[in-house]
Amino acid sequence: MNHKVVYNAPWGALLKSMTALSICILVGIPMIGVFSGPHNNRVWILSMIVMPLTILITAAFFSIRGYVLTRETLFIQRIGWSSKVDLTNMVSVEQDPKAMSGSLRTCGNGGMFCFAGAFRNKKLGAYRAFATDPKRSVVLKLSNRTIVVTPDSPEEFVAQLRELRNV
Q1: Who's near 75: CB < 8 A, 6+ residues apart?
Q2: 67, 119, 127, 132: most buried by Cβ count inside 10 Å?
């Protein structure tokens, strides 16, 4: 039997405000480009209209919609696809609302539709985040890496994962 449990990924206040600001900028730049630029200049059109809208649309497809938990795999649901985390080498799982505090993004998205990618802080060291609300952080320690996710019910997620993995 392949039992699976689905959790939503609600957006926290910080993600909502950062995404709103990003959308304003990435829609505002093309508006300036359309209304004030030289319409026959390809570099202007590319840099002021096409590029900002491409960034916005691409980032939207990487947003995190939820998490599907099975005995051996965690699926991070995106728009039209999923990222996969193998849980067979999981060492521990714990809820920690301050897990992402003081983090530096080393590569990834720091607040446009999600917080995803490679991060580092003193508490966790290097880790990979798939987050929408850092206050809901759950830290998964695997034998070779650390993952942070932010399900709608962190306590239930941890309990369910411990039950599935016997950790």
Answers
A1: 67, 68, 69, 82, 83, 84, 85
A2: 132
Chain-centre distance for alpha carbon 82:
12
| DSSP 8-state symbol, 99 | T
Length of the chain: 167
pTM: 0.91
Measured between alpha carbons, how far is 152 from 88 in angstroms, rounded to an integer?
23
Q: Which of 31-45, 88-102, 127-141, 148-162 has the lowest mean pLDDT?
A: 31-45
Q: Judge whether residue 1 has pLDDT over 50.
A: no
Could you read off the pLDDT of 101-150 as tens digits, one per residue? Answer: 999 999 999 999 999 999 999 999 999 999 999 999 999 999 999 999 99
Q: Which domain holds residue 32?
A: 1-167
User: 110, 148, 109: which is closest to 126 by C-alpha?
Assistant: 148
Residue type, 55: I
Domain count of the chain? 1
Cα separation, 137 vs 98, whole angstroms = 7
- Given a contact cutoff of 8 angstroms between Cβ atoms, the answer to whether 75 and 83 are in contact is yes
Radius of gyration of the chain (CA): 19
